[in-house]
Amino acid sequence: MELTGAEIFVECLKEEGVDTIFGYPGGAVLFLYDELYKQHDKINHILVRHEQGAVHAAEGYAKATNKPGVALVTSGPGATNAVTGIADAYLDSVPLVVFTGQVPRALIGNDAFQEVDIVGITRPCVKHNFLVTDVNDLATTIKKAFYIASTGRPGPVLVDIPKDITTARCEFHYPKEITMRSYNPTVKGNKRQVRRALDLMLEAKKPVLYTGGGVVLSGAAHQLTELAHELGFPITNTLMGLGGFPSMDKQFIGMLGMHGTYEANNAMHHADLVIAIGARFDDRVTGNIEKFCPYAKIIHVDIDPASISKNVKVDVPIVGDVKSVIIDMLEELRSRSERPDAAALAAWWQQIKEWQGADCLKYNQDVNAAIKAQFVVEKWWEVTNGDAYICSDVGQHQMWAAQYYKFSKPNRWINSGGLGTMGFGLPAAMGVQMAFPEETVACITGDGSIQMCIQELATCLQYHLPIKVISLNNGYLGMVRQWQEFFYQKRYAMSYMEALPDFVKLAEAYGHVGMRIEKVSDVEGALKEALALKDRLVFMDFITERENNVFPMVPAGAGQNEMILV
Amino acid sequence: MRHVISILMENEAGALSRVAGLFSARGYNIESLTVAPTDDATLSRLTVVTRGSDEIVEQIVKQLNKLIDVVKVMDLSQYSHMEREMMFIKVGVEKNTACEAVKRLADIFRGNIIDVSDKTYTIELTGDRSKLDAFVNALKDYRIIEVVRSGSMGIARGEASLHI
């Protein structure tokens, strides 16, 4: 039977097992929306209030579930509004399929109403993109889009569909499988390289496991924990890798990088072997690359060959899926009789304990002083038993959330790491809450970030999403102000939010519960009260210490061992 | 160092701009870029001439391979290979002496005069880059009106080849 392009679109989503999509209608996608209307019992469409929100929500959904997130927007401004989210997904390797409407084929290139070349605009920030020029190609293109987005190093794929394609008809046939001669990601790591890696691991005197978002994306947290336990090595996570190893485990030495722990950064600096797994030696991790890991051999496991030896020369590269390679490493380790050098490891741990003695995340919360953001995050961790999904915006609050919420499971920490997109947190939390309606989902944010996608509070009301918004309000763009304090002689250029809205009234205006918390003694009670309001979005506006700084810190240009502690 | 990189790519709209965009986005240098379909109509072959350290060229090759439309990449500089470029050059020959001299130079360089008018000769010349440079240089005393160069293309010698 022949179907229209719009019918094929919905059939394809069903074939891919998509049950939830995030989007915003417009002229070019009216036929697609008409079909979604007819089949609303099959696909749940969440109407956001801005296309950026749709893409971030799809990202939140994907990051929490490891399934591709799906967004649908119209042509022109709908598509350009989605670009920030697409770039965000590209830098954090989030599997995403974004459908954009396009003007009818005959009008392409004509500067038609709501026409932009979105395939051209997004080319540098997608894993791949397609313009559908024939309805006969639509199903195969959508199949390819999901396949490319979710395999190899995941990423966003954009499919641009001209309006007349959605009304054109053809026989519908959905390919069960797809093979592409130009795209065959390597999954299995090279056995010889795995053996070489194990040789180094068994010889090492000062080893460190440095693991990143790849562990979470690959679903390898369990295998990584096993490997770390069998080796007894200290382990540090990148910002994206948090939750890939349980934070309360005694082998965990905290996050590394610019705002990582003193012990993690020093361990990296003094290590004789760094085992990087699903991490990409980002500049926020390495600090000054000239001073990075001066004594270490480096093993690097990554599914993306282009990530290997990009920033740092690697001694043993292993291209492959993180989970598959860790399983091979475990097998190789178990087949051998040697074990890591216990005496050397004991001495290494002794050294690490000394660094831990600096207690770099210590802070002092005076009951009568202003609330410290760190204290709020730590209390939230306590009252949720460390089990909530934490979505974060970007800035100081993001770093405090990463430092003080001790993640014990993967996919629970959802933040914009690579692009650093303010406004990510609230819509991402919507995506997570849609995926897990019964779970506690929080958005830890600041008074700057929250205003970048505040309109999504309306979406939260429409779909009854009981997100707990934890606003760490200091009246500043805190991270900008911190840098201005340190490096620009306290010239606070434009980092002061002079006219903040009354967030309590704002939350109430959107139909939610608002709270303002100004006293230290009220923090825990407010958090518990919000948690008890199971079916309501609660916006907690914590009035926090104004000029609080994120410590420790590796200043720009410094090495990992040159941290500012306080 | 100068590298000649050959790329086999799906012959699809936008494929060329993915390669060109990759070079500009990542700050890689392009000395020349040529592209045309192959005997297999679904494939295009590109030749990019670039400069960079070994590390940079390694990244270029990896990043090219990462493009979904790229089927295969070969750094010809790692093989014994041949390189050719084609040039059209239009020269003013108004002076009587110029006609003879330009024709003689074209012969020496084994170029062909493919168009003649009262005032101009148009010469076709094929060779590696330095030969074309030398020919342009040899004509510097005459009035060069127009130079069109195709950019380099290359192929490995012997059994080594880039095919699917």
Automatic annotation (TrEMBL), chain A:
Read off the InterPro entries from this record: Acetolactate_synth_lsu (IPR012846), AHAS_TPP (IPR039368), DHS-like_NAD/FAD-binding_dom (IPR029035), THDP-binding (IPR029061), Thiamin_PyroP_enz_cen_dom (IPR012000), Thiamin_PyroP_enz_TPP-bd_dom (IPR012001), TPP_enz (IPR045229), TPP_enzyme_TPP-bd (IPR011766)
Q: Which reaction does it catalyse?
A: 2 pyruvate + H(+) = (2S)-2-acetolactate + CO2
One Pfam entry name: TPP_enzyme_C
Q: Which residues form the Thiamine pyrophosphate enzyme central domain?
A: 194-326
Query: Is Chloroplast found in the keyword set?
Result: no
The Thiamine pyrophosphate enzyme TPP-binding domain covers 393-541
Q: How is the cofactor bound?
A: Binds 1 thiamine pyrophosphate per subunit. Binds 1 Mg(2+) ion per subunit.
Q: What cofactor requirement does the entry state? A: thiamine diphosphate; Mg(2+)
Q: Name one GO biological process term.
A: L-valine biosynthetic process
Alphabetical keyword list: Amino-acid biosynthesis, Branched-chain amino acid biosynthesis, FAD, Flavoprotein, Magnesium, Metal-binding, Plasmid, Thiamine pyrophosphate, Transferase
List the pathway annotation: Amino-acid biosynthesis; L-valine biosynthesis; L-valine from pyruvate: step 1/4; Amino-acid biosynthesis; L-isoleucine biosynthesis; L-isoleucine from 2-oxobutanoate: step 1/4
Q: Which GO terms describe its molecular function?
A: acetolactate synthase activity; flavin adenine dinucleotide binding; magnesium ion binding; thiamine pyrophosphate binding
* EC number in record: 2.2.1.6
One GO cellular component term of this record is:
acetolactate synthase complex
Q: Where is the Thiamine pyrophosphate enzyme N-terminal TPP-binding domain?
A: 4-120
PANTHER family (alphabetical): ACETOLACTATE SYNTHASE CATALYTIC SUBUNIT, MITOCHONDRIAL (PTHR18968:SF13), THIAMINE PYROPHOSPHATE ENZYMES (PTHR18968)
Q: Which NCBIfam families match?
A: acolac_lg
Similarity remark: Belongs to the TPP enzyme family.
Q: What is this protein called?
A: Acetolactate synthase
What gene is this protein a product of?
ilvB
UniProtKB/TrEMBL annotation, chain B:
Name this protein carries in UniProt: Acetolactate synthase small subunit
Q: What pathway is it annotated to?
A: Amino-acid biosynthesis; L-valine biosynthesis; L-valine from pyruvate: step 1/4; Amino-acid biosynthesis; L-isoleucine biosynthesis; L-isoleucine from 2-oxobutanoate: step 1/4
Select a single GO molecular function from the record's annotations and give it: acetolactate synthase activity
Catalytic activity as recorded in UniProt: 2 pyruvate + H(+) = (2S)-2-acetolactate + CO2
Task: List the source organism.
Answer: Thiothrix fructosivorans
- What are the alphabetically sorted keywords of the record? Amino-acid biosynthesis, Branched-chain amino acid biosynthesis, Plasmid, Transferase
Broad enzyme group: transferase
Q: What is its EC number?
A: 2.2.1.6
Domain spans labelled ACT: 4-78
> A cellular component term (GO) from this record?
cytosol
Q: Which PROSITE patterns match?
A: ACT
